[in-house]
Amino acid sequence: MKKSITIWALKGGISGNISVINALKEVKMAGFDGLEVSLWENGDIAYNSKLSDLHQLKKSIDNIGGEISSMSTLLLNNISLISQEKSERNKAYHICQKMLDIAHELNIPSISISPGKITNIFSYKDCILRAEEQIKGLAEYAEKKQVLLCVENVWQGLLLSPIEFANFCNSIDSGWVSSCIDIGNAAFFTPPDLWINELNRIGKVHITDIRKRRNNTLIEFVNPLEGQVNWKEVMQSIRKLKYNGYLTIETFAKHGQSQFESLKVLNMSLEKIILMGKTNEKKIDNISTSR
């Protein structure tokens, strides 16, 4: 498996106020194999990016030997594929199409999206049906662009159990649709390996970790290996599905820390996680990612 990290882990990575090339160089120096980029409102990879700019970016990526592992976006946080408002649904759909367009131009193998956010619910069953309709439409576009579309388990009110999420992903009859399993999101209420065991296929893995406090009433995201995820069980389940792609750390830049030192520690954590669950596994000592 290969190691990747989201551009959100770097300062300016959330807003787009960062050079993708500089980000690639830094994560590569820290030991990662690839970088997961983001579709921004403004920036190197944006909703309004011109084809000529993308071609130039692709040349620059190739020149430094960089690998873009995948693409995500925060633009769907407040815009839903299953909204009751047609204009909002269409906008969310176009954002997903734009991600597929850009991924095609930059030779990015996959994107991950939320299947939809529930706000003013009309019928939960109708939400599922609408999400299926939207994803099936995007599946045809993904096939046209030759980019894998991964549906992610996000906490937006839809597909919140292992069976429900797996049934949804497995029901989309397309080789261009798969699942993106976010380990920390899965661990909120259920051991994440139970989610993985229900899936027929995985197209993408987000490495996140959580810590529960105050009798599980307070849950916080922490760096990998600092939380309560049973990584040995997770990795064993991932290997059973014959997944051999990128494991991508998804975290956000923290103030008051040396960015490069933080990246190196995260890379070390990911290396330890990858070793877990192997048949010939050696003893792995816990490490602290705090500085």
Order of helix and strand elements from N to C terminus: EHEHEHEHEHEHHEEEHEH
Spatially, the strands of the biggest sheet line up as 3-2-1-10-7-6-5-4
Poorly predicted ranges: 283-291
Cα-based radius of gyration, to the nearest Å: 18 Å
Q: Architecture, according to CATH? A: Alpha-Beta Barrel
CATH superfamily: Divalent-metal-dependent TIM barrel enzymes
Number of domains: 1
Number of strands: 10
- The CATH topology assignment is TIM Barrel
Shape: globular
Helix coverage percent? 25-40%
Largest sheet at a glance? 8 strands, parallel
What structural category arises from helix and sheet content? alpha/beta
In percent, how much strand structure appears in the residues?
15-25%
Overall CATH class? Alpha Beta
Description of the structure:
It is a single chain. The protein is α/β, with parallel strands linked by helices and 291 residues long. It has a single domain, classed as Alpha-Beta Barrel (TIM Barrel). The chain is built from 9 helices and 10 strands. The chain has an 8-stranded parallel sheet with strand order 3-2-1-10-7-6-5-4. The chain has a two-stranded antiparallel ribbon with strand order 8-9. The longest helix has 22 residues. It is globular, with a radius of gyration of 18 Å. It starts with a strand and ends in a 16-residue tail after the last helix.
